Amino acid sequence: MGAQPQIDLERSGDGARLHLGGPLRIATLHDWQAQAMPEIGHVALVIDIRDVVSLDTAGAWFLLDLERRLAAGGAEVSFDGMSAKTSALMEIVRDNLPRSEEEPEAKKGLTGCLEDLGRTTWSVWRTMLELNGLLGQLLVRGAGLIVQPGRLRWTAMVAHMQAAGLQALPIVALMSFLIGVVMAFQGAVQLRAFGAEIFVVDLLAISILRELGVLLTAILVAGRSGSAFTAAIGSMKMREEIDAMRTLGLDPVEVLVLPRVLALVIMLPILAFFADIAGLLGGALMSWINLGISPGLFLARLLEETDVWNFVVGMVKAPFFAATIGLVGCFEGLKVEGNAESLGARTSRSVVEAIFLVIVLDALFSVFFAIVGV
After folding, report:
1. CATH code of the domain containing 73
2. Rounded to whole angstroms, how far apart are CA atoms 178 and 281?
3. If we measure between CA atoms, which residue out of 285, 276, 174, 268 comes closest to residue 222?
């Protein structure tokens, strides 16, 4: 049999038979692609390959692509003359062809809305289960460190404490200072009408110490450090460094997740404390300028009328917020796939999820402390 492709079409009634002959391999693929295929039309077509003397994966791809193109033209395609070896090769190539990325047409109306709701609900439920699983692994690894504290990556944890805590201190302090200024100014406008300007101090103390100081700090850390955790771990996932860790017998949760979460748990209460101080300083400055409340009077009123539990409540929330931010940031990083689009989507998603969960936790804490009377 010659090396040139042989293509012959026979028609009979409503059907047709396409005879192919010659070597169908990667070396001759260009010659096959250069051949003009006859017009088939809407018929039952049998592709006879019994005269194909040799076939490799490139040739199998050519046959499957020919089948696809003829079927798109309306023909009902089947193969004849396949040996068991050829059939097995064709199935392997067929299973590994890229799938179409076209999304199915969205259903409209009530059915479509219910379907979208069901998919979203299942996705949220599955994410919560996976987060819970990662939390369980984290607790197990943390308990193991009590017995073997030397297993903790101290250098990595200190580095994350510096990046997530110390380097975030200026922006946290500035934000809280400005929030204190705004609250004192807006509070003075409302309280001046009742001649109760002095209660601006109480307003600042309760709102900043109990709620805004720790909450705004957690939101800022979620956007700054939580996204950084996702980006760093996601980049390692894209470069297959995490797979290499597992091959070397290293646990990614212990090496990557635990130091980051512990660093946030340690540093967020410290950041919240400085945020409280900066917020009160901003409020005191605006009270002095706008209301004539001297720093001494402000401090005296603060110490006399402010319950220490307002400060304690804020500090109690901080470690829980920190653990949530670190857990979500690392979880989304571990879910990154092998492309930049996935990395960007997961980074954005980690920020949204962390902020949402922090606000939910804050609401739960508010209800809890109201029930216990704190």
Report:
1. 3.30.750.24
2. 10
3. 268
Q: 257 near 140, Cβ under 8 Å?
A: no
- Tell me which residue of 235, 217, 206, 237 sits closest to 312, measured CA to CA: 206
pTM greater than 0.85 (yes/no): no
Residues 206 and 273 in one domain: yes
Which amino acid would we find at residue 301?
R
Compute the distance between CA of residue 129 and CA of residue 121 in angstroms, rounded to an integer: 12
Q: What's the rounded Cα separation, in Å, for the pair 69 and 63?
A: 10
Q: What is the pLDDT of residues 191-218, one digit of tens each?
A: 877 777 788 888 888 899 988 999 999 9
Query: In terms of Cα–Cα distance, which of 68, 73, 72 is closest to 94?
Result: 68
Within the chain, strands assigned E span: 6-12, 15-24, 44-55, 76-80
Looking at the structure, tell me whether residues 352 and 259 fall in a common domain: yes
Burial category of 91 from C-beta neighbours within 10 Å (exposed 0-12, middle 13-18, buried 19 and up):
exposed
Considering the domain architecture, whether residues 220 and 368 belong to the same structural domain is answered as yes
Domain-terminating residue out of 40, 71, 95: 95
Q: Is 100 exposed, middle or buried (0-12, 13-18, 19+ CB in 10 A)?
A: exposed
pLDDT at residue 366 above 60? yes
Distance of CA 33 to CAs 2, 22, 61, 96, Å? 17, 13, 12, 21
Task: State how many domains the chain has.
Answer: 2
Burial 2-28 (b: 16+ CB within 10 A, else e): eeebeeeeeeeeeebebbbbbbbbeeb
> Do both 182 and 87 map to the same domain?
no
CB neighbourhood size of 205 (10 A): 23
Kindly report, residue by residue over 34-62, the tens digit of the pLDDT: 776 777 777 788 888 888 888 888 888 88
Q: Are residues 159 and 51 in the same domain?
A: no
In the chain, the N- to C-terminal Cα span, in Å, equals: 93
Q: Please give the residue range of the domain that contains residue 137.
A: 131-372
